[in-house]
Amino acid sequence: MPVKRSENEAGFTMISVILGLSLVIALSIVAVTAVSGDLHLNRHDLDQRRAYEAAKAGINDYVFHLHNETDYWTDCTNVQPETNAVNQVGSTAKQRHVPGNTGGTYAIELLPAAGQSQYTQCDAANPGPSMLEPSGLFRGTFRIRSTGFSGKADVSIVATFKPATFLDYVYLTQYETLDPVSYGFPNPSPELDGANSQCSKPLQERDLQGNPLALSMAGRNSAPIPNVKDADGNETIYCVVISFVKGDSINGPMHTNDSFAISDNPTLGRGPADPVEVSGPPKGWFSTKDVPQSGSTKTGSSSNFKGTLTANSPVINPPPSNSALEDIAGLKFTGQVRICLNGETISVSAGKTCTESPLYSGPLPSNGVVYVGGTSCPTIYSPFTATYPSTSGCGTAFIHGEYSGQLTLATENDIIVDGNLIHSGEGVLGLIANNFVRVYHPFSAQTGRSKCNSGSNGAGSISNLQIDAAILAIEHSFIVDHYDCGNSLGTLTVNGAIAMKYRGPVGTTGGTGYIKNYNYDDRLRYLQPPSFIEPAESDWVVGRETLD
Fold first, then answer.
1. What contacts 353, CB < 8 A, 6 or more positions away?
2. Looking at CB atoms within 10 Å, which of 21, 111, 303, 488 has the fewest?
3. Residue range 25-64, pLDDT digits in tens
4. DSSP letter at 183?
């Protein structure tokens, strides 16, 4: 018998199809709605990122103009070009597009000094009182607010500008080469004159249009030192190339008015926030093998540059001497002295120890400044012939100890660190020498050996030395005496800042002296040694940035 289809069954099938289609449509609507929501969120996130980058571009714009014109900030909103984005506080009317056509714009507001209530905005007739903070940790700084806009998003960053100081960097040099007086030439002599003229040139020079020239064409290693001749009467001696090597760690911001020579892959900087500044043209560093007459086959690498390398940075130079500190010093001495620090007290003597022939023992001076002057200094220093006389008319100070007070030691001649200098609490120390800041290192030559680097370290040599201080060698270098002599001394750890005219060696790749471990003391951004010397011409730098 034929099977008879049920009419009810056919209707049920149609209902199932309609319900299935409805479910698919509903799920599609939900999916489209979810995707639209994600697109909206993604668009918002993209606008936020673009607004942040636009705000950063505003800060960079202001920094650029400050570098070109140090007094740019004193003109308030009356600045060039006419299309600038600089506004008085409370206004973002004047805006500029971010370069690169990202769609973002930025506006800059000048924030009046918080400690000057009589000024509600930047006053071009009184820029200092209206903009510069008069007291506190941020004394002498001024602030701007940069707001970036993209779509419906806006982000504001407040940048605090401060004068550039030597204390902004863990490592700062004018020239990345050996000090001319360290070659051992007679003083005065034509040879020393030649070294001063040739070795006080940058590693890479520029043509009249400002374009970098090849190292072989111009710069200190493109030609030998004038007046210095070998046994055959030929000028073949070149300025010494000092490089950063594998194992060197410079943990903090860096600056040189020169360019760097690199062997292997040293660590420069702690991270992208640490500037690694060179005043030379890009690329700013060279493998030692590429530097003429370096005598090196080493290929340098930037693979471990953790800081942000920036070429064409402003030049930073010290004043001609530290004599201004002599005028204000709370304690003054003449000749060679020995200084021992202990907490907030200081002992000073004219003998071989801090208790022999005492000159002073007591609290640190109230203004925190000690100056050591000199009457005569007949011997010209060389790291290869350094001696340690028991007495001298030179304005030189030996120093070591542990301290918790705040002190700046300045000398007319040299400062010699003859033991650990370790701080505690809020202790901070400045060492400012007109000539050298040196590390004590005698050596003992072995019998029958003529070269010191075949000998051993002498009595009193300090292994794994620690120096917690801000160091400034105005005319010369921070250096280890006889750095090429004896055996390895381990690591030289400096926690603070080092600034010098010429780069001073602390060891050799042959295993003498120290490996460098230099660490920036971030306290120096706000806690500085008393009356520490400022650069001769100070640029403005961003001391801090905060989201507003």
1. 338
2. 303
3. 554 554 445 444 454 557 778 899 999 999 999 998 998 8
4. G
